[in-house]
Amino acid sequence: MGRIEDKFAALRRKGAKALIAYLTAGDPDLKTTAALIPMLEKSGVDILEVGVPFSDPTADGPAIQVASQRALKSGTTLAGILALIKDLRTASQIPIVLFGYFNPVFHYGCERFAADAKAAGVDAVLVVDLPPEEAGELRRFTDPLGIDFISLIAPTTDSKRAAAICRNATGFLYYISVTGVTGTAKPVVGSIRSDVKRLRKLTQLPIAVGFGITSPEDAAQIAPHADGVVIGSAFVRLIEQYGGKKELLKKVEAFAKSIRKAI
């Protein structure tokens, strides 16, 4: 079993739900990212999504788009992110999902990327703009190394396509709770409940719900219907607000603990 499977199994035994946090690597710089990760783990984050900054993050809302620009301006690269994760592995075994777009991976080289990601300690990849029909270009290198390929399912995904996605997904399934980009709309709990119930008939994988979950109240409402909740833009906004200030770590820590308590 890998770190992601182990984590969900351990949480299931305790009757707990996963708190999955997203950070844009290199926002405002990689040194800050390296300080935030262990603090988040100590604050109750179970799985970490490490975002690879990209110049055209079409699935992301304004907060993460601006964070990507800050990270790119600070000189953040995919190679630098992998080096950061490798350093992190000397002290932490938190499951890590490398989250991003295919362009940086393609330019890095799929085979080289898979080998370097495995060596660094990456547990999974989530490539927003790589649909299942085209994922083989990357998965032929990542799958044999045991790197999970996290798949997205939207409210608009029909049953036939959802079944096909579930058959090929690994790690966990990421259910997008709202249509549109991240951090711009509120999820509807009733819709999430019915959609997740439908997906559970198609897969034994854990189901995490993300997009639009910005507060402890949101998380508390959604957690009973999922195996985990994903918080992204809310963390990114805190980093934007307090980046470069001494209270940054305390503010992010307090928010993470409030979500952990809520779920």
Strand neighbour order, sheet with most strands: 5-4-3-2-1-9-8-7-6
Low-pLDDT windows of residues: none
Q: Give, in order, the helices and strands.
A: HEHEHHEHHEHEEHEHEHEHH
Q: Supply the number of helical segments.
A: 12
Overall pLDDT metric: 94
In angstroms, what is the radius of gyration? 17 Å
Largest sheet: 9 strands, parallel
Q: Strand tally, please?
A: 9
What percent of residues are in strands? 5-15%
Notes on the protein architecture:
The protein is 48% helix and 14% strand. The protein has 263 residues and is an alpha/beta fold. The chain has helices spanning 3-14, 30-42, 62-73, 78-88, 102-108, 110-120, 136-142, 159-168, 189-200, 216-222, 233-242, 248-262, and strands at 18-24, 47-51, 96-100, 124-127, 148-149, 151-153, 173-176, 207-210, 228-231. The chain starts with a helix and ends with a helix. The relative contact order is 0.17. A nine-stranded parallel β-sheet has the order 5-4-3-2-1-9-8-7-6. It contains twelve helices and nine strands.
Topology:
Blueprint: H1 3-14, E1 18-24, H2 30-42, E2 47-51, H3 62-73, H4 78-88, E3 96-100, H5 102-108, H6 110-120, E4 124-127, H7 136-142, E5 148-149, E6 151-153, H8 159-168, E7 173-176, H9 189-200, E8 207-210, H10 216-222, E9 228-231, H11 233-242, H12 248-262
Parallel strand pairs: 1-2, 1-9, 2-3, 3-4, 4-5, 6-7, 7-8, 8-9
Helix pairs in contact: 2-4, 2-12, 4-6, 6-7, 10-12, 11-12
